[in-house]
Specification:
There is one protein chain. With 124 residues, the chain is mainly β. 0% of the residues lie in helices and 49% in strands. Strand 5 and strand 6 form a beta hairpin.
């Protein structure tokens, strides 16, 4: 059974840092692009970051460039999202997703495997 499980979310203060993890099981993550997306009630799902299977191609959404870093450890079948200097606009449920065609896409429709999400709340 394929699973992506996110963790690392929580309640943090404005300007804090936290790291989200996405552990994959039932698939070999190094052949998948991994994307991070976030969603808040009433808003469209927003692209945050994505990395190719080998980590050579990385993309970020404009709102997180310079603050968030995506990385992956394929030996652990895990991807990460390091979030620095967070602010209230970063409050959302964060999801990781995997694309078996390794496209490093910004569109959520390109991803066929999804985790259930982890909540990040930034208190100002």
């Amino acid at each position: 059974q394929v699973q992506l499980v996110e963790s690392g979310g929580g309640l943090v203060q404005d300007g804090a840092s936290l790291r989200l993890s996405c552990v994959a099981s039932g698939l070999t993550l190094h052949v998948y692009a991994v994307g991070w997306f976030r969603r808040t009630p009433g808003k469209e799902r927003e692209f945050v970051a994505a990395a190719s299977g080998n980590g050579a191609i990385i993309k970020y959404g404009d709102s997180v460039k310079g603050r968030f870093t995506i990385s992956r450890d394929n030996t652990k079948n895990t991807a990460y999202l390091q979030m620095n200097n967070v602010h209230s606009d970063d409050t959302a449920t964060y999801f990781c997703a995997a694309d078996g065609l390794d496209r490093v896409a910004e569109s959520a429709f390109r991803y066929d495997r999804w985790g259930r999400g982890t909540q990040v709340t930034v208190a100002s």
